[in-house]
Amino acid sequence: MIVSEKNKIDLLENGFITLNNIYSGEEVEQILFTIDQADKTKETFRKSTDLFAIRQFLKEIPDTINLVFNNNLNKVVNQLFGDNYFVVKSIYFDKPATSNWYVSYHQDLTISVDRKVELDNYGPWTTKQNQFAVQPPIDIMENIYTIRIHLDDTDENNGALRVIPKSHAKKIYRPETINRNTEKEEMCCVSKGGILIMKPLILHSSSRTTNNKRRRVIHIEFSNQELPAAIKWAERLN
User: Fold this and answer.
1) Looking at beta carbons, which pairs linking 116-123 to residues 24 or more positions away fall under 8 Å?
2) Helix, strand or coil for residue 92?
3) Max CA separation in the chain (angstroms)
4) Is residue 91 part of a domain?
5) Which of 18, 73, 162, 164 is the most buried (most CB within 10 A)?
6) 115 in a domain, yes or no?
């Protein structure tokens, strides 16, 4: 049993947990080697001085699927979410050692879909490089889980996520309304080969890198919800 009852309660109540030792050092290196072999000229690959990112990661580099979904991760998904959850989004990002990339407090409020269609309670829409994102009804977001796989040791010096525990339970929660007197911030330090599991509605942010160490993360979102017939999840993977 990888997941304890306390883990389940913490995720439900606080909106996040960390689990270490999900991947061995060798497994992490194999994932990174497979990423390095990929064709980086595609539209879904984004490179700047502060960030390298691959959108639709599992679709673009399918050789990583069996490496990412090792026995440990499969057990975590099954024990925490149940067997009716499927992948709906995946991103790889590499925050270089000299990155000044700073992300202020926000909630993840959109899903990735295959097309833009006018639908009641879906919107606003955004489109980047022929990829469509939309803010769905809140109940869809409430049923999503995010797993962030850490391929480097991550702490406050190289951009570990900071979160506001329990903020996921407040539905849409605008960052400018955070009450600093009552809300406490928590740092999500994760060892190489460990994972952070969180609810996308939790308020989260990350700082600039100050210790010249890179931060490479695979971000995967899971849902058990079907969408209206007019649209499909852009990256559905059972």
Assistant:
1) 117/230, 117/231, 119/228, 119/230, 119/231, 122/228, 122/231
2) strand
3) 48
4) yes
5) 164
6) yes
Query: Strand, helix or coil at 6?
Result: helix
Q: 225 CB contacts (<8 Å, ≥6 apart)?
A: 139, 140, 143
Q: pLDDT tens across 14-31, in order?
A: 999 999 999 999 999 999
What residue numbers bound the domain in which 76 lies? 5-223
Amino acid, res. 43: E
In a domain, 108, yes or no: yes
Nearest by Cα to 206 from 100, 111, 48, 56: 100
Number of helical (H) and strand (E) elements in the chain, helices listed first:
6, 14
* Count of the separate structural domains present in the chain: 1
What pLDDT digit, counting tens, does each position of 153-171 carry? 999 998 899 999 999 999 9
Distance CA 183, CA 195 (A): 24
pLDDT of residue 50: 64
Contact 173, 201 (CB under 8 A): yes
The answer to whether 68 and 220 are in contact (CB under 8 A) is: yes
Mean pLDDT of 209-230: 94
User: Residue 49 has what pLDDT?
Assistant: 67
CB count within 10 Å of CB 238 equals 6
Q: Is the pTM of this model over 0.90?
A: yes
In the chain, the amino acid numbered 174 is R
On whether residue 231 sits in a domain, the answer given is: no
